[in-house]
Amino acid sequence: MYALPLLSLAIWIPIVFGVLVLATGSDRNAPLARIIALVGAVLGFVVTLPLYAGFSPQMGGFQYVQKVGWIEAFNAHYHLGIDGVSLLLLLLNSFTTVIVVLAGWEIIQKRVAQYMAAFLMLSGLMNGVFCALDALLFYVFFEATLIPMFIIIGIWGGPNRVYASIKFFLYTLLGSLLSLVALIYLYFASGGSFSLLDFYDTPLAIGAQTFIFFAFFMAFAVKVPMWPVHTWLPDAHVEAPTGGSVVLAAIMLKLGGYGFLRLSLPIVPDASHALSGFMIFLSLVAVVYIGLVALVQTDMKKLIAYSSISHMGFVTLGLFIFNAQGMEGAVIQMISHGFVSGALFLCVGVLYDRMHSRQIGDYGGVVNTMPVFAAFFMLFAMANAGLPGTSGFVGEFTVILGAMQASFWYAFAAATTLIFGAAYTLWMYKRVVFGAVANAHVAELKDINLREFLVLGLLAVAVLAMGIWPAPFAEVIHTSVADLLSHVMHSKLPVQ
Questions:
Q1: Distance between alpha carbon 412 and the CA centroid of its chain, in Å?
Q2: Is 365 left (phi over 0), alpha (psi -120 to 50) or beta?
């Protein structure tokens, strides 16, 4: 099962193919760049499939472990391994990379090689985050993901791309710097090791735990993003090209949730318990308040961006109510949100490529000219509203069940997203798609082509499969969540 270094292949295949794509040079070789990029993306996805096939859901701890020396002076290692949570995020990331390459196949006409290479390298770096079991390696991968996304927004983005890219970079970089201080503290506290497994077993006083918790909070809350450090996301989404928005929503936001799960909860469990009320409050504000903010948006991308913040509130809520249903629901919600939000941004991209407008008021009656597209858009809108039978329902409902065990009022507040989500999503859909043809531009629209059908079709299958049969997703995380809960429920305060 461990004959091939599959985790290293999942990380480095996209990065190496990204370099190969860059080597094609100018746009005269754009067809070759696209083909190499697609081969790299598909290969990157294919090598993750044996990880799922060979994964043992009943086995605790980390699997497919690789460990070799890296920086001997700091006792840092190239240490990789995955549990059930990492596995699902690896699969989601690699799958999304294929989707993004296909989505930009015809739309991107300038600097094609650089565009494709940025996404491939970003995919490999994010896989590194999900696999790293060495804190220094985790930090390097975590920070390195900023560079390709900064370039993607800054070069291929909209009119305010420079402002949006710098805001994105500063928010996420400044948030992460404090976490580096925490990692250095843990390095000395653990006796000179950067191993996350050593950090997990290091007893820390409550004061130190609290400092480390807030240091990690600054890094991961911005990434999720949690209210009130969310303001960079709508700007980044609006200005990013369609592929950038898809990866940002589907994968990059998950780095924050994953960071809480992999670092904050197991390293500082006592502080996590003590501050759980604070985290639940911020999560519910995101669910309720940001849902109301989404209602008043006139730009489709901005509406979906605020919707993402609201739905990601379920992830942090599920993690900090400290029961199995809440945590499993949080992980499933991360995967579901990757499918649904990515699909919605692709739908907006399909319309924008034809009309060059994201304003809801510029549309109306799209179903008359694009009926196949309207059907896909309806499915993803319903999933975003949490319709049973779609992936959007599974994660949110599971988190609400977990919240009910903690407090009826937590569950009540969280459940309002099913109302607000339906309100803002279906109201947008109604104004864009239904009714008579609104203007001459809508009348001239052509329905989706075969490439667009393939991209949206793959995501539709994922949304329905997860909604109808969530067991393959839930089974692989059950033991990992149980192990994490068992670890977190035991105090890591030093013995007096």
A1: 26
A2: left
Residue 411's nearest CA partner among 423, 397, 425 is: 397
The residues, any chain, with a CB within 8 Å of residue 116's CB and separated by 6 or more, are 18, 21, 33, 34, 36, 37, 101, 104, 108
Angle ∠(452,15,37) on CA atoms, nearest 5: 30
Q: What is the pTM of this model?
A: 0.89
243 touches 152 (CB < 8 A): yes
Are the CB atoms for 389 and 382 separated by under 8 Å? no
**Per-residue pLDDT tens digits for 65-101:** 888 988 888 888 899 999 888 999 999 999 999 999 9
Q: CA 206, 210, 215: angle at the middle one, nearest 5?
A: 150
Dist CA 115 CA 155 (whole Å): 9
The whole-number average pLDDT for the span 267-279 is: 88
For residues 287 and 53, what is the distance between their CA atoms, to the nearest angstrom? Answer: 35
CB 117 within 8 A of CB 35: no
The number of beta carbons lying within 10 Å of the beta carbon of residue 177 is 12
Helix and strand counts by DSSP (H, E) for the chain: 25, 2
User: Is 181:215 a contact under the CB 8 Å cutoff?
Assistant: yes
What residue type is assigned to position 46 of the chain? V
Closest CA to 416 of 260, 295, 274: 295
> Are 333 and 396 in contact, with CB atoms under 8 Å apart?
yes
Q: What is the DSSP letter of 262?
A: I
DSSP SS3 for 193? coil
Closest CA to 232 of 163, 134, 304: 163
What average pLDDT does range 475-487 have in this prediction? 86
Closest C-alpha among 182, 314, 334, 189 to residue 252: 334
Query: 125, 118 in Cβ contact below 8 A?
Result: no
> Which residue type occupies 196?
L
Nearest-angstrom CA–CA distance, 60 and 62: 7
Alpha carbons 492 and 265: distance in angstroms, whole number: 11
Q: Find all residues with CB under 8 Å of 434, minimum gap 6, and list them.
A: 364, 365, 367
CB atoms within 10 A of CB 53: 8
Q: Report whether 104 contacts 451 (CB < 8 A).
A: no
**Nearest CA-CA partner of 42 in 54, 52, 34, 53:** 34
| Total Cβ atoms within 10 A of residue 362 | 17
Q: What is the mean pLDDT of the chain?
A: 87
Cβ atoms of 94 and 10 closer than 8 Å: yes
β-sheet bridge partners, residue 71: 76
Q: What's phi and psi for 399, nearest 5 deg?
A: -65, -40
Residue 171 has pLDDT above 60, yes or no: yes
Measured distance CA(181)–CA(216) in Å, rounded = 10
